[in-house]
Amino acid sequence: MLWLILSLVTAFFESLRDVANKTSSTLHNDYVITWSLNAFTALLLLPLTLILGTPTISPPFWNALLAGSFLNAIAFLYFIKAIRLSDLSKVAPLTTFTPLFLLLTSPILVGEFPNTWGLLGILLIVSGAYLLNFAQHKQGYLQPLRALINERGARFMLLVAFLWSLTSNFDKIGVQNSSPLFWVTTVYAANALWLFPLMLLKCQGWREQIQAKPLPLLAIGGFNAIAVACQMTALSLTLVAYVIAIKRTSALFNVLWGRFIFQETGLKQRFLGTGIMVVGVVVIALS
């Protein structure tokens, strides 16, 4: 069950990355954070990648790299925007919708078909998302779902969850046609290349921002480097939906960090909703 251990390590370090992202949002521009996350991840993984050497690369690698890096660049940008706009404990759990979307995208892109237990997992994930905003049910029982649609941060994170359901499959293709570490280093370097012109256009003082407060940005890259290296190794061992489902247990950590680090309110309600979503994720994984 090495894949399970690696997926749980991924979840923990991804939650630490999200805390560093939230902290940096008060210090840096969204475009600087997004570019730094990807660039520093690639730079920190590069030495180990060079030591291990270049694997044999098959042709599907290049298509996966082009499509995966472009969609990842968009997803990371909206991810940072969502964290800036809303409470971490409210929007980060919405990434648990990724396994839900994977039930649709994985059969198409990599031919992986989950069984009927996936339907129970879907029901639990949707129920948990409903409970994230249950305090608003006094305005009508559809109001918690409307709150997800009406809040910009929540809308952005749902878009991110969908995009990551696509890129996770491209990750699988990339890993199968190279190696886990080589793929993750290459794809994050490509993400940074897509984002660099956008950062130049949208942020005039990007260089000064990085030089003034580099440590939070390096922390983002460091936590993310550990997380994605473990994730890609896990992807080489089992189904995409299993890895991403366990990875999304990071939502539980994010609810706790939101309360104890950022003093966000509504912990009990969000912890219940997030817990149910995570149960749904585990049901899909164990299916």
Quick recap:
This protein is mostly helical and 287 residues long.
Radius of gyration: 18 Å
The number of domains:
1
Classify the beta-strand content into a percent band.
under 5%
Distance between the termini: 15 Å
Number of strands: 0
Structural class: mainly alpha
Rounded mean pLDDT score: 83
- Largest sheet descriptor: none
Order of helices and strands: HHHHHHHHHHHHHH
Helix segment count?
A: 14
> Helix content range of the residues, please?
over 70%
Oligomer: single chain
The poorly predicted ranges are none
Shape: globular
Task: Name its key features.
287 residues, mainly alpha, 14 helices, 0% strand, globular, EamA_dom, transmembrane, EmrE-like, EamA family transporter, membrane
How are the SSEs ordered, and which strands pair?
Blueprint: H1 2-24, H2 30-52, H3 60-85, H4 88-91, H5 97-109, H6 117-132, H7 143-150, H8 152-176, H9 180-202, H10 206-212, H11 214-235, H12 240-247, H13 250-260, H14 267-286
Helix pairs in contact: 1-11, 1-12, 1-13, 2-3, 2-9, 2-11, 3-8, 3-9, 5-6, 5-8, 5-12, 6-14, 8-9, 9-11, 12-14, 13-14
Your description of this structure?
The two termini are 15 Å apart. Helix 6 runs antiparallel to helix 14. The chain is an all-alpha fold and 287 residues long. 80% of the residues lie in helices and 0% in strands. It has 14 helices and no strands. It has helices at residues 2-24, 30-52, 60-85, 88-91, 97-109, 117-132, 143-150, 152-176, 180-202, 206-212, 214-235, 240-247, 250-260, 267-286. The protein has one domain (2-286). The mean pLDDT is 83. It comes from Phormidium yuhuli AB48. Residues 2-133, 153-285 form the EamA domain. This is EamA family transporter.
